[in-house]
Amino acid sequence: MVNNIPPSVHGSQEKMRPSLARTVTPREVWAWAMYDFANSGYTTVVITAIFNAYFVSVVAGNQPWATFAWTTALAVSYAAIMFTAPVIGAYADAYAAKKKLLALTTIGCVIFTALLALAGPGSLWLAIVLIVFSNFFYGSGENLVAAFLPELARGRSLGKVSGWGWSLGYVGGLVSLGACLAYVSWAQGQGQQAAGFVPVTMLITAVLFAISSLPTFLFLKERAVPQPHLRGLNLMQESFARLGQTLKHARNYRDLRRFLICTVFYQAGIQAVITLAAIYAQQAMHFTTQQTLLLIFVVNITAAIGAFLFGHLQDRIGHIPTIALTLIGWIAMIGLAWAAQGPTLFWAAANLAGICMGSSQSAGRALVGLLSPATRRAEFFGLWGLAVKLSSILGPLTYGAVSWISQGDHRLAMLITGSYFVAGLAILAGVNVRRGRRAALQSKL
Fold this sequence. Notes:
Blueprint: H1 7-16, H2 26-49, H3 51-59, H4 66-95, H5 98-115, H6 124-146, H7 149-152, H8 158-189, H9 194-212, H10 214-219, H11 235-248, H12 254-283, H13 289-317, H14 319-339, H15 343-371, H16 377-405, H17 410-428, H18 433-441
C-alpha cells in the first residue's frame, strides 16, 4: 500500500510511524483525523457563526426570549448526550461496534443538518427539534470517534496524534465556513435576504460533512473485539449492567475520575467562550458582523496551530504540565478580554484563546485515552463526553445568568467565567498520570 505513494509523501509517512501502533498505517490515521475535519463544519457554521444568529433574528423574530430559546435547545441536546453517552459507549465496547455506531450518528447529523434548511420565519418549534437532534447526533459521534485514538497511537504519542486530528478539524471548520460565506456573499449580491440564503448554507454544511467523512468509513479499522456477553440480558440491559460494573469499580480509576471532574470545570469555561464569543465581541467590543466573522476565521487558524504544536509538546513535557499551561493561558485570556477597551487588546485575547482552545481540548482527549482500560475505551470516552456536555450546559448558563442579573454586563460575565479555569487548574494538580496509567493497564474489567 505504501509502495504506491510518491517518494515525498512516503518520507513524511515514515516519520509518522514511530508515533503509531504496530499495525496502524499513516493512511488510517489520516482517515481518522478526517472525521474531525468533517464534523467541525457543523459546529463552526451551525453553532458558532451562521445558524445561531439566524435562529435569533429570523426564526425567533428577535424576540426578548430568542437567545434563551437557542441556549435551551442546545442544553436539551447536551443533556440527552449526557444520559446516553455512557450506555452507547458500553454497547460499543461489548459488541465492538464503534464504527457502526459512528456511521449511524453521522447519517443522523447529516440528515438533520440538511433539514435545518426548512427552518424559517414562524417555524420556531421545527427549528428547535432539528437543532436538538442534529446536535445530539454530532455530540454522540464525537465521543465515538475519540475512542479510536488509543488504538491508533502509541502511549507516548497520544497527545501528538490527537493534536493532528484536532488541528485538521479546525481546518475543516474553515473550509465549511469559507464555502458558506462565499455563497452568502454571492446571494447578498443578488439581493437575497437571510431567509433565502441561510437555508442553503445548511445544505452546504451537510454535504461537506458527508463527503469529508467518507475516508473514515473506508479506511479506519475496528480493532476492538467483542467482550463476553452477560447471560440472560438483552442488549440494553447488558449495556446498563456493564456501565454499572464500571461505576462500581470506579475507585480503581481515581485519577481518571478526578480528571473528568477537572474537565467539567475547565471545559465549562471553554464552552462559554465558544458559544458566546461572538456575542461578547458585538455587545462589549461593538464589533460589526464582518469583523466578528473575520475574528472567527483567525481564531480557527490559531486554534489549529495550537492543537498541532501542543500535541507535540504534550508528549515531550507530559500531559499534566501541558494542560496546566493551557489553563494558565485561558486565565490570561480572560484577563485580557476583560481589560480590553479597544480592538487591539481584544484581538490578542482572541488569538490566545484560539491557541489554548485547540491545545487544551486535544490534550484532554489524549489523557482520557491514556487513563482508560483497553477493554472499556468507548465507555470511558462516553464518560468523558458526559463531562464535556455537562460543561456545555454549565458554562454558557453561568455566563447568561450573570449577564442577566447584572443587566447586560458582559465584562463581568466573562470575568466570572474565568473562575472555572482557576477551579480546573486546582483540581488538575491532584491527578497522578503514572498511577492512573498503571491502574488502566492492571484493569480486570
